[in-house]
Amino acid sequence: MTSNEPFDAIRHDDLxxxxxxxxxxxxxxxxxxxxMRSWIEAVKATLGTKRGARFFVVELRERSSRKTLMLLxxxxxxxxxxxxxEFVSLGVCDLAMPVMASDDAVADAADARxxxxxxxxxxxxxxxxxxxxxxxxxxxxxxxxxxxxxIVTGAQLRYEAPVVADAAQVIDAMASTKMRQNLKRSERRLxxxxxxxxxxxxxxxxxxxxLAAMFRQRQERFQELGRFDFLAQTEVRDFYRLxxxxxxxxxGTARLWALLVDGEPVATCLGLVHAKxxxxxxxxxxxxxxxxxxxxxxxxxxxxxxxxxxxxxxxDYSVGEGYHKTxxxxxxxxxxxxxxxxxxxxxxxxxxLSLLGRSKAxxxxxxxxxxxxxxxxxxxxxxxxRRR
Length: 388
What we know:
CATH superfamily of the largest domain: Gcn5-related N-acetyltransferase (GNAT)
CATH topology of the largest domain: Aminopeptidase
CATH class of the largest domain: Alpha Beta
Number of helices: 11
Largest sheet: 8 strands, mixed
Oligomer: single chain
């Protein structure tokens, strides 16, 4: 690097070596719930172990002052003969942002290019870099990753809504007219089945009961729809068990809630509570005769009341579309992806991924072909699910 570069980078292969620095940034700087060290450590212990991933953190410093500006958690893993460096996600991190100091260090695209060059200088050997789900800004902070050269618009939007009004009025303030009508009908149908109770898991017994219900409801629903169930993988379930228990230990942000009817969980939600924000990650409901009662909608409405009672000012409904998201005031937020080839093999892989993306987009522009393809995939997954 030339002497006029503004940033220096240091790679830390031992996460424990920067635990105090990381903790200081969490306490006095900026970190999303998905870059908290406890969350990253849980990813490493479960999903990372399954994939044989190597975790490391790149520390960015301002060259002139030697001040640490940010930490970027990465992991390196291989599949199908090529090695990928990923901003830690492995499918369970909805937002990609550095852990940052209290002030912004990257002002424009030129700064972002210099930052990325410093990062490239210390990365281990790999074929490509992948950073998905980059918000341009979050909780009032600009995301320097959103200024990287070659960034592209992501395939999915994220939905969020400010939690407004007091607890008694929050539903009237946030829910659409149609949603309020549906809620009244759902509440009436549920009440006909038994006593309705909103539950926040506070004990090991609570967690075990609600996790079992969440996994079961999710599996049954996705099998019925013929959709791939990410949570069906053992290591993914182990991850969510681990982060749920972190709350009981006082080291994590994950919480579990449920709607019960006569003591039976008919809907569940796993989310993160961090910086006055609730991130809704997994929402499930019991199918069969319960489906007409829409218990998941009632659970979300109770969660909004819980948010107001517990000082939560923002609800992040996560990525992807959903009636409950827009019905409870969620507004779409743009997300970006960044991919960069580091070798010839990486360029070939990215070219193949680009071709696949264009093929999927073309199929979606031909409704009959798209519907036929989707039905075939769903039928295959239903049959595979029944065999399991």
